[in-house]
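Async update (no meeting this week)

Hi team, since we skipped the sync, here's where things stand on the single-chain job. The sequence we agreed to prioritize is pasted below, unchanged from the tracker. I ran it this morning and attached the output directly underneath so nobody has to dig for it. Comments welcome in thread, and please keep replies under the output.
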Amino acid sequence: MKKRFAIDCSKLNIREKSGTHRFLVGFLNELTKNKEFEFTFFYNQFDSALNEFDFVKRGTMRSLQVKSFYTQLYLLKELKNFDYFLFPWQTIPFLGLFSRARKLAVIHDTGFSLKAKLFTFLTQVCADKLFSVSKFTAEGLIKPSIVISEGVDTSIFHNILLKDLSHDRKRLNVPDFFILTLGRVEKRKNIYNNLEAFSIIQKYFPKLKYVIIGQFVESEEDIYSFIAQLKIDRNKIVFKNFISDFDLNIYLNCMEFMVFTPKIEGFGLPVLEAYAVRKLAILSRIQALADFELTANQFVNPNEPKEIAERVINTLKKNESFKFGKAFKAIIENYSWKNSVANFINNI
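Output:
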């Protein structure tokens, strides 16, 4: 008899491409291939576009029909109906300490606000088994966790030949010459220092554009005001709040390289997605991103706009060459959803 496995998909909104969202989709697409379980997915609002995800076809969708605060209270009564219950949002039904279901929690970071830190703490206390997405995150937790890392779906993110890009490039109006940042538009992701760096870069490369793909957390008015203060031509900055994975793959293939310089990070999935299309990423010199090294020259101090600018300029000038050699191959092979799920299954 198959074991019953439930997943809290209550915050799975396909328009908001947070790191947790991208993790859950890739992870579930692989996890639901396992024939030993019967899967149930709990959601708040169903969007027909969810049908694009493979995992939806391998289980049952169940509506919660509740607002976010009451989600965990609703799930509390469901715990008795399952053998395993996965909570990927760093929230868990805190009153369900002695429930039948084995509560599995995935921790993506230690929390970047007081509220997030509190919920992360309570999740650790109440979970029967704790998993984390990186060694860096695991070291910041109060309880031991199994590091399962993340992965990249190479059927979605892959290298496309230049001759095959032309149609979609025109459809999306993708710039001819640009660098790209992927992630929420917020201080933690270093938006202000990156923009200040770009104000320096554009003096050397006036035709270069800067594409930023991610949900606004900072005030849009504040961001646009800062761009004006830096005297950056507004047409040189392209913001894209929401795009599909298919379209993101087009942008990744067309960019010169990625600029991913967060001040704090749990894992760094966008870096893997850049590597999957064989593009370099300029990275913060922080512990969470150390395992993604292809060349020592790709790391910068995220608090120094001039250093970020210098590294980007030198890379654009081809002054700092690199090869996708053994290090690249090892990273792609090691960080896969197949490996992540296998490690997860072996430890539940």
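Quick observations from my side:
The radius of gyration is 21 Å.
The chain is about 35% helix and 15% strand.
Reply here if anything looks off.
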